[in-house]
Amino acid sequence: MTATPPMQSTTLPSARRRPDPGGVRVTVAVPTFRRPDDLRDLLPRLLEQVAEVAAGGRFTAQVLVVDNDPAGSGSAVAAAVPGVRYVVESRPGIAAVRNRALDEAAGSRLLAFIDDDERPCENWLGALLATWEDSGAAAVSGRILAEYPGPVDPWILAGRFFVRRRMPTGTEIDVAATGNLLLDLDQVRAAGTRFESALGLAGGEDTLFSRSLAHAGARMVWCDESAAVDRVPAERTTRRWVLIRAWSHGNATVLTELRLTAGTAARLRVRARGVLRGLLRLGGGSARWALGRVSGSARHQARGARAVFRGLGMVGGALGVVYEEYARDGRRWRLGRVAPR
């Protein structure tokens, strides 16, 4: 398939032009995989948020759990919470789960994603919906706040690796993560955008999805009032995990560019740029790490090391090395051809 050609945003339906009679239907989707305890804590919180937005009469909402465990490990938890709809998506990978949520929300105008290990802050959903009403955007992205299970390596804190971006509400963005994201499904369907299953185990499917949506002419905006707390598990607060994640992000950056690019010559240019940019990051990161060693700055050491691994990931992606962060067979690294969309 060829890359999706750019379109003008005026070709897509807007929130203002397509009001839904009797209230706008909203589906709140929770992708999950073998985290029943997290799910047990999250679902009542989501039902409170759904009840709050429904009380105003402008919205009707439901909670949907999409379980990627073929054994249905989350079924008993979901069944114990009245008002929650539960489905199993047996195809492995987060992209398959998110696409299943898109399909299950066929009768809804809006779809909000929140991860099973996150917790919504007060007015999380209401703030997303208010920004959507004000902006008419195809996607509204909110903040993620990190919460640690205990003491954290000072190196991790110095690098600020779990501190996410924030900006004024209404700021236009061109890429968004899906941990706290509201989608206008009318506009998503008009753009023909779905999550790429080929990246379902490698990560970066949310980057490709949002960038594809932007390429189709859809607007995406920020909502700073909407926040969800990411409960960072202890196994992720290690230097090894942070550096491998940096490699994975660098890898996904180049793979996303390749999938958005059509034509052999153009894709070769993307690969060449990926190698060059990766080497520049590697060199710059090495210099910053060395500066940190000399000056005793933990921040420079940490950020420099991450830049090195991100650069290596970009070079790897340009040369055809794919890192499957969520692989379930233990095989994380592979050589593969990334076909264009």
TrEMBL record:
Q: Where is the Glycosyltransferase 2-like domain?
A: 27-156
Coiled-coil annotation reads none
Q: Does the keyword Lyase apply?
A: no
| Keyword tags | Glycosyltransferase, Transferase
> What species is given as this protein's source?
Geodermatophilus amargosae
Keyword Glycosyltransferase applies: yes
Q: Where is the composition biased (Polar residues)?
A: 1-13
Gene Ontology MF term list: glycosyltransferase activity
Q: Where is this region: Disordered?
A: 1-24
Phylogenetic lineage: Bacteria, Bacillati, Actinomycetota, Actinomycetes, Geodermatophilales
Family per record: Belongs to the glycosyltransferase 2 family.
Protein name as catalogued: Glycosyltransferase, GT2 family
Pfam families, A to Z: Glycos_transf_2
The pathway where this protein functions is: Cell wall biogenesis; cell wall polysaccharide biosynthesis
